[in-house]
## 1
Amino acid sequence: MIENIELPIDRFSTNRLDNLKLKNFIYGKNGTGKSSIATCIEEQYSEDYDVRVFQGYERIIAEQGQLNSITLGIKNVELQPKIEEAEALVLDLQKELGNKESGLYKDLNNQLEKVRQVKSDLDRFFINSARKLKNENSELVGITYNKNGFKSDISLRKKASDEERITAKININQAIVETGVMIEYTCESLETYIESVNQLLIVDIVEPTTLKFNSDVERNWVQSGISLHENNSTCLFCGANLSPERKEVLRDYFNDAVKTTSQDIVKLFDELERLRTAVKKMINIDESRFMLIFHSQIKDLNLQLSEIREKKLNILDVIEAKLKEKQSNIFSIVEPVDLSDNNKDFDSFFESYKALYVDNYNRSSELENIKKTARDILLNDLIYQICDLYGYSKKNEELILEKAELDCKEGYIKGKEQDLQEAREKLNSLKKQTVDESIAADTINRLLAGLGNKSFTLVKSELDNHNGSYIIHDYNGAVRDIKSLSTGEKNIVAFLWFICNLENIELAEAKPQVVVFDDPMNSNDDTTQYLIISQLQKLIRDNEDKQIFLLTHNVHFYLNTRYKYWKNKLSRKCTYHLIKNGTHTDIKLISNETQDFRTAYDALWRELNWLYNNEDAKPEYLLNPIRRILETFEKFNCIDNMCRNFSEAEKLFDVNSHSIDDLEAELNGKDKSAIIDILKKVFSDNHSLEHFKSHWN
């Protein structure tokens, strides 16, 4: 047995309905969520229980206007629209598919022609492009190149930059290169020699105090004359006596200081000559030993090398000239040279050369791959240009779109053909599934006979092959137009069929049965209401195994169906009232007879009491039941306007001017007590204060 139901929190103030029994009665006005409860039962418990839900005639009776008949039975009602839909679908699909002259088949043929034309245009482009490449660039594609090769290469097309194109043209023509061994360039820095020369240039040969020369010319003249006077005691120039002591002083002066300096100058001359020879031996790099791609870099390196040689030779020339100047004026101080040579430019050159040599050596060993890469770059670039000129991308996109459209149409038509086949099979299957409802129809006719002159009869139709199709005969046996059937008449037939079907052995499941009546009273007159109530009373009274849920908004129906409800077996019964509280519904368990109501009018007072005592209910919620209470009291007691002497109450309650859901009244800050006090005064003014007190607590 179902003991609780999970409820949607967006509709109810509580998310669970507990303490359910074998027989459950739920009363609530329209909009309080009764159908939501019925839906929850069906959704939450259909797997474990045989849940049967009655929610009116729509699921049990369907009209067949073209046959002037009705379809009876849940199974047949479910099948009837499906049969009609299947029949209409077969006709629609046949019309939609058409033939070669119309419909989808015509569209398909037109699309096939579009694809053929685009493919033909592209095919001509492939043939002409392959021929052009073979004739003008056979070194790239060979002499057997054809359209298939071009189609295959199109996917590799790629635009090359100017630099990539130039490099590829160089590489593709590259012959095998003998790299040879790397030149081990050496070049000394001249800083040390510049420093040595400058040191000699500033050497000052100091004269002894006994020797005094007026000029370097005089010194040089004396120096050259020493050897001439070696064996003479008199001066060959002036005839003066030359003492041995004088000759010894001159000899020491010129032989020691001057000789040492002269020797250093000669040594430096030798070093400078050696350096000059070494510099001149730094020959240019042979570009023939390098791949074509490196020739521009070789030219740059050779230019650097030439500049290095020129710079060093210039330095050597300058310091050599300074040495000659010192040699010629050995007794004078010569101004030093302001030069430097840190050799960084040579180091940079040599590092670049070594790196280029290694790169050249490695590339030379990969020459075949380099030439292939160059060929690919040039060919892909040519194909790109050919395709770009033709507009291949746009044309290919057009083909793709047209083929996609063709595939779409073919797939769509295939689906439609499959749909047509399935629709025909389904139509035949549906017709075979219709259920014979003769037994139920006989029972319904027997019960309807009790309605007297309001009765009508179900007669099985012979106009089609549907087992559940029935024609309506009136009380006198004449055929009635099904359009004349009222909502109440359809509802009573559906209700009686539902009751009969509960005992249908063929439909019974091996699960406990749960029966839900969701507002079974629908536009029924008094006679048919009595029939429905009596059938429900019988079902509820005799039931021992079915769990029953009866949900209704009709107070009269609610009270009469629960005949002698509070007299016995309360442990197997459960009653709830649903009360709207703003946007949500509150659920109130009715646990004894005093909490329940006896009439519809009594129900309004109980609702008013509940809203008054509910802290969550706003004051304006009280107005709707008050309006209905006053309206009912006025009609029953033939009072024209109970609020005639109270303008405030007349405006506030405004009986007969508001819909039952209208809560937009101007309260001017009134709380619940103030509203009830106004209601009390209205009843008192109409000499009905005791009536008010009897219903208000």
## 2
Amino acid sequence: MSDPKTEIKMSSKPAYKSQPESVQKRLCSNLFLSIKFFVFCHSLLQLAQLMISGYLKSSISTIERRFGLSSQTSGLLAAFNEVGNTALIIFVSYFGSRVHRPRLIGLGAVLVAVAGLLMSLPHFIAEPYRYDHVNLDLPQDSASSLCLLPQTPAPALASASVPTLNSSSCALSSEAPQMVVVGLMFLAQTLLGVGAVPIQPFGISYIDDFAHPSNSPLYLGILFAVTLIGPGLAYGLGGLMLRFYVDIDRMPEGGISLTPKDPRWVGAWWLGFLVSAGAVTLTALPYFFFPREMPKEEQELSFRKRILPSLDDKGENSLIKLGAGNSSDKEKDREAQIAPDLTVIQFVKIFPHVLLRNLRHPIFLLVVLAQVSMSSMVAGMATFLPKFLERQFSVTASFANLLIGSISIPAAIVGIVAGGFLVKRLHLGPTRCATLGIVGAFTCLLLGLPLFFIGCPTHPIANVYGTSTLPENEDFLSCTQLCSCSKSDFNPVCDTRSHIEYVTPCQAGCTGLQGDPGPGQGPVIYTNCSCLLSGLRNSSVTSGSCESSCSHLVLPFILLVSLGGAVASITHTPSFMLILRGVKKEDKSLAVGMQFMLQRVLAWMPSPVIHGSAIDTACVFWADTCGMRSLCRYYDHDLLRHRFIGLQFFFKLGTLVCFTLVFIILRQQEKEAASSRSHNGLVSKEEKLVLSSEKRSEDSRM
């Protein structure tokens, strides 16, 4: 016989264990039924997604140096993620709430993470970085690029001094891997754009559908505020990762003799993509547990009741009404615009008609063109500003990224917030929104004028820039011909006395070196240099480029750029308000989607390529790889500054012109409306006089 007490104890144990499990399941299910938790997850996901898409811009010059790309090619690479995005963004308006939005957001995030891994893959399949030579058979050390005169008995180095590569070996060792690497990065950028398509639109609509109508604007404000941190983190991550050497995982035996200040230095650009891809993967996991539909939030936040009473404004200028709106109103707009039973083909057919109807609206067209001009300026600056700072002020890639991430990005965030605050607090109507756009664009234009004059001139570079008029130039050319220097070598040295730079020690006629200090221990001193333009014979030069004479100007330059960006960002919210108030009610929901699509097609896609092409035209010395130019080694700094800043000035001017035309049209419409009201008022007074006289005559008859 078994003891009944024992049976009771045994039977009670499973119930005791299952209780915390059921509590955990209940808590977990309640967590994924909370719109607040969704807002938290979506803020982190959009932050990580913008970090992975912005990281490429922080390391664009490093990728150019690593794989021998021109700025035009790297600009096309930076813009290529918009191709996949633009091709699919139209269908987001069609699918709406017909799909499982959280799950689709999660799948898109996984695709973004895969794209990040693909972006880092070229590092692992390519050969180790050769910072001295293109030819892989040459030794990579300080003595490999010395001048070897005909009478100098050094057969081992003589064979290494002049590489001879035929066309077949060039095609085998350079062109094929280059095509694979570049093709992989373009594929990764396309996948990145495709994966990002459902993240923001579906996330915003999901929040707006299931949040309390009064809480929705606050949630969206938190979402946008956290998301804007992403680009700043991307530049900060770039500044951190580019301090490490690119082949940190396969460092050559004995280390390297480069420092981050060396123009041949290539940082670990691929590490940032791995970190960002891991962050996106982690933030994507919760989306597979959110339901397709969750219970509508019923209570208004107590924080909002106490701190944000102004959000209850029901007036015409309320941000709730214009920004998030009532969910029922949005449903009516959506139903008035597109019937819910339309097929994909019918949707594609009706979309061009809606697009053309809005493009014929002058306010919508001009505001979108103003945003396109502003976005073109931002796209070019975001892509190539780090490289511009590196070249113009001789700062490291890491320092340039830290400046942008810590000063420029926060300034732009402050400008966007200030623009929204001004629209809300001052209750700005359409005409005043256009006025604010004019003031912001004009101030940004004025702040950009001093940038034409803040920069460093290009120091003399032997046989490249600024030395052709020297009387010693003919002797220099005849001297370097005796050394038989290779055109593919790049190991810059500086004559600190004359401040003239030479592409290699061989070009300076150096035949020896003063003891190799070892990896990272300091610059190498090359001796017995007989071809110096200064006229000194058997002198010495130092490895590395010559120090810039105006590196201290980088801080005033970045402060002016950041201030101009902050002022330009003030126009962000007013331009949105002009579009929302300017289009028909039934087209409002698609008008914003069209606006983003046109910005991608007309600004974010072509602008990096245009800026990259302008930068390439300022190049004065291209690297020679198998008889073909690959990347630019030296730029004319004045020409680079004038063309880069001039292109920015052109887009700022376009923004100012568009906002001015919007203001003129709105004022004209106001005058016509006022004259129409006054005319209607006069007619009504005349009618009243006629009626009163008729009434008096009838009374007299009676």
## 3
Amino acid sequence: MHVERTERSIGELIDQISSAEIRLPEIQREYVWKPTQVAKLMDSIYRGYPFGSLLFWQTDDMPETRSMAVTGLETRPARPPLFLLDGQQRLTSLHRVFTDHPEAQIVFHVEGERFQNQSAATRRDSKWIKVHDVLDPEASMLRITKQMLDAGATLPDHEIERRLSKVKQLRNGRFAMEVLKGFPYDEVAEIFVRVNSGGRRLGTLDLAMATLSTRWTGVLAKLEQEADYWRSQGYGGIDVNFLSRALAGVVLGRGLSAYSHSRLRQAKDVELEQGWTVVQRGLRRLVPLLRSQLRLIRSEPLPSLVVLIPLVVLLGRPDEEPTDRDTINGILYWLLIATVRTRYSGSTDTRLSQDIQAAEKGAGAVRALLENLDVVHSRVEVTERALLGRTKESPYFFLSLLVAQLNDARDWWYGGEILPGVDSERGIEQHHIHPAAILVDDYEKTEINDLTNLVFISGKANKKIAGRSPVDYFPELSKDELAAHLVPLDESLWHPGAYRDFLAARRSLLARAMNDLLDRFRPGWLDAAVAVPSDSTTGFSLDLALYESPWEDGRMIFIAAGKGINWSGSARMADLENAIESARIAGLDSDLELAGESVPVRIAEDSVEVPIGPFLVVGSPEEWRSVLDRERASARPMSAIPEVPSVPWAGERTRFPVTNTE
């Protein structure tokens, strides 16, 4: 065994990928880079900045492989391939740019010497040119230079040619390479895990997947086949990542951690086979329950599918086919409460460990799961106050869909199902009952987007509303059609001027329906006791508002309130987005200047934690991204920004899901 150190040009590596002389072993994760990252890589190479080294494995054996996210590959390499262990994101990105992949349309601005992804604006501006067009061996620098001058470029023609030539020379950039020779597969996988455990790291799920691949050849094919099956059943959320986490959870008997890969490496073949049987059997028992009892015929409405894993563990044992009503009810009751309480919004794998261990307790598993939620001696209740100010990012939005489903709500005017079957091309949609266009001058965005103003209807039905007030279009619908969607039938509430009263009335109807739903599945053996709020954040609120303009950095204002709390602060939107992107893409901790102090933005398992005033706001990177996109879509002008004091929070902090922000 030895390590060969060499180097190779980008052009040579691109050609080797195209000829299938560079391939991905099964242990590799999927391609995840975004166009912004690809553009930054091109910029680094252009400017002569370091752009990293590559790690390969050369072997006489042919390991299981996975496809690269590129096009136009040969099927039979002319010589034995190299297997790429580190550098997949960079090499895949470069191959995409060099071969004009539709998802890597990177353009270059000659005057500004900037790279970015193609957009409508760059298409209109002839000073932007596609990098692939410059890299084309047949491209004429003279012709492109003339094109730039005709577009109004003010640089001398020789300078334009020089800059274009630098782009052309990107192909000659050289990667340092290390090639592992003579190493067995299990050691290569261990090296892969170690390389990816530091710096620009893989998550615990990726590391577990890599280790499973070394222990069980062909596991990726098994996972992909199972994921394809569930996709065909409408449960596309049961993907390779979900199945990897579920399998690891069954084998380990707990959630993932930094040490999971070493424990998985010690697992025996029989443990892996038995674990996979448990996962498959558990899903084939659980999904029919969701379909028949909750009418949840697709997976998309579930805010997080992690909530299914303890139930897969519980139902996957050979003798655990649920037959009695109380067991079935207890399983569904736990799922609903865990979802509403955002059980896995922070410290996901710590809580998953608790729940997997509870799910393994045989006849007492359902009770143990409910004890983890602290609901065995209390009756969970959704209050109207708990729904106040909630939007579609709230887990209560999921409950609002379920109660509409179980109330047999249909699409207005057209009568279609609001949660269509697998064969339907129409996805789930929600639209404003009172259209935003008639409310925007009199109400804040949080009121307009309140979940009590959202109804599940098709885009076709929404076009029929065409911006009209309910007082104008409700008469076209029957009272039964409205009541099925829990719409108040008092006509005096249908006018825009009565909008807040309409929200209050519908909030009451929704809370009552949600409580009926929870009580419907509440096991009979649970003790009736003092009702407790169904959400630990009840009584607290965190309002976000973005202010920005084309010439000034945007600022995000935070306003926290509840139980004697009255705090506000602000941060630069760009800094907040960069911190979340660092967590989402690279898994890196960072810092954020907020309310006059530097606060840590940390990765905790698969969640991002940001201290904001009295709250430790937690959520997955995707949930954070969704909330930031929501605020950007409703940004206000910088001229309207209020004065916000910069007073750091000095007290204790309460955990607060980012999905509960308003």
